[in-house]
Amino acid sequence: MIQLIDIEVEHTIEEYATDTVLRDSVRAMQNTVTDDVAALDGRTVWMVNSTASGGGVAEMMPKLVGLLRALGVETQWAVIDVDEPVFFEFTKEIHNLLHGAGDPELVDHERSVYEATSRSVADELEDRIDPDDVLVVHDPQPLAAGAMVADGLDVPAVWRCHIGSEERSEKSRTAWEFLRPWIVDYDRTVFTLPAYVPAFLETEADIIPPAIDPFSAKNRRLKPQEAATVLARADLIDTGHPVERFDQPARRLQADGTFASATDPEDIGLLFRPTICQISRWDGLKGFVPLLRGFAELKRDARSAVDASAATNGGDDSAEAGRSDAHRRRIDDARLLLVGPDPSSVADDPEGREALENLEEEWLALDPEIRSDIAVVVMPPDQHDSALVINALQRCSSVVAQNSLQEGFGLTVTEAMWKRAVLMGSDTGGIGAQITDGKNGRLVPDSSDPASVAHTLDDVLGSPERWDDWSYNAQRHVTDNYLVFEQVTRWLDTLGEVVE
Q: Cα(403)–Cα(452) distance, rounded to whole angstroms?
């Protein structure tokens, strides 16, 4: 039921401090946390979540745990190992309801499975945790188990909720009503954004945004030749030269509905064409379908406008009047990449396969001419390989999109901003908190509306003179707010208050 995850410390605090961009952030962390580390007085902090791979929580945990240890805080990372599909199906329903989606009628049988499984997890946790330790539980999956431990051992406990919605609805209220009896057993709660905090927790919640590790495989600097090599090893570009490919490279959706080499039926053109790329978990809330439809609409509009202009002997067609020749060429040459993980690699997301199948149906229904400009790609299943692929894709893309219909925070946006990418994101959740429209990227007014997506994408492709300013401001924003050093500082402040 409980699996302890080993943490391999890849970089020391001193190594981070040698980086001129990171030095001030590292020193600020070291100078700020001294009293909080002393307040913990040798207690072990237990971080508990539902999976060791896939999703932002699992990605953040190794570096968070590693830095806490480096600062002198004994920290353990425990993952609940549940072999009960109904448990994760139910917690996915809760996840969707907190985002304002799904069926608010919760099934009693699923509730019973959740509670019984949580009791088993709690029993094993209680055997490992000492009464003086500190328990930190992440998201709804282990929430009830953590509450049972906090009640049984009377240990200081914090619940960290990484998800939520700015809008209150019957669906979100249903989820909070179910979770509330478990949440009240915790001493503090932590949320990503103030807007996500339900009314009954307003006085007992801290705000800690997620953060990225700038030295991780997904975020470390890549020289141009390194990025090209990663893409070649993943079979995403065809170099014509011998390349030692990953054991399991990326795969691309084909016209017959199967997946094959990402260079079939031809090279996507990553290094030479304007490329719009979205990389997310396969989830209906990530907005892949309206992004695909919006891109297709932009392509159709641009091509029909050219045809209409030619038919009128070069007349000033309204759709083309505002586009320069270079702008028209960028649209005509543009490719869209929709990229996600192997659905089987994300243990706590049973809906990933269904979301990918829905996207496949949308892609297959497109006209072949437009379909050839859109690639649906599944990344290598190896976690390290896929992290490098994401890094290279974000650095090589002309525009990185995150068209989520609902979003907790959107670390894919943070990661791309750190790499000085040109961002186009939806105005929802943490994406709107990160992107200031027209300053460090562009926001889509309505991410569910293909026309809105097409219009915003048209504006982005038509404004290359602003790309440098947007990308510089984006990286500066992440450096000031969303690096792991700031996250550790906030966590230690919360933990210090809880034990005192």
A: 11
